[in-house]
Amino acid sequence: ASTPLDSPTIFDKIISKEIPANIVFEDEQVIAFRDINPQAPVHIVLIPKVKDGLSGLSKAEERHCEILGRLLYTAKLVAKQEGLDDGFRIVINDGPKGCQSVYHIHVHLLGGRQMNWPPG
Ligand code: 5GP
């Protein structure tokens, strides 16, 4: 049986500090931590602390506009904190064809090397 999209994920355990993560930023709404399987010298995952049905971007509703903006703005702050002054990449994977593996919306911040376009 497939897992319902509103089920808890590993990210809930990171939010609750039940499992350790290398947290680089945290406020009331957003937590950002280093990816366990980094795809670049800097690879940080930013997530909302409250999922509110947002298992992925494809599930976004009007009420999520504020947190979606907050995630992107926080990504910019963390990029600055990480010294990514020459550029960085933001990625949101959605659904099976987008290679999403954790169904709690998240923004990837990648940097510290030259990125390529188009991505694979
Ligand atoms: P997705 O593939 O869904 O876009 O991204 C999920 C990301 O979360 C992956 O890059 C994966 O490496 C990362 N990830 C999965 N589980 C953990 C974990 O327990 N700790 C950390 N730090 N990252 C994780």
Total E-strand runs: 5
Instruction: Specify Rg, calculated over alpha carbons.
Output: 14 Å
Number of domains: 1
Poorly predicted ranges (pLDDT <50, ≥5 residues)?
A: none
* Count of helical stretches: 2
* Structure class: alpha+beta
Mean pLDDT: 96
Describe the structure.
The chain is α+β, with helices and mostly antiparallel strands. The protein has a single domain, classed as HIT family, subunit A. It has helices at 10-15, 65-81, and strands at residues 23-26, 30-34, 42-48, 89-91, 107-111. A five-stranded antiparallel beta sheet has the order 1-2-3-5-4, with helices on one face. A hairpin with a 7-residue loop joins strand 2 and strand 3. The longest helix has 17 residues, at 65-81. The N and C termini lie far apart (30 Å). The mean pLDDT is 96. Bound molecules: guanosine-5'-monophosphate. Residues 10, 21, 33-37, 45, 93, 99-102 line the site of guanosine-5'-monophosphate.
Offer a concise description of the structure.
A motif (Histidine triad motif) lies at residues 104-108. With 120 residues, this protein is α+β, with helices and mostly antiparallel strands. It is built from two helices and five strands.
Name some characteristics of this structure.
120 residues; alpha+beta; HIT family, subunit A; five-stranded antiparallel β-sheet; 2 helices; 5 strands; globular; binds guanosine-5'-monophosphate
SSE order and pairing:
Elements (H helix, E strand, L loop, with lengths): L9 H6 L7 E4 L3 E5 L7 E7 L16 H17 L7 E3 L15 E5 L9
Antiparallel strand pairs: 1-2, 2-3, 3-5, 4-5
Bound molecules: guanosine-5'-monophosphate (5GP).
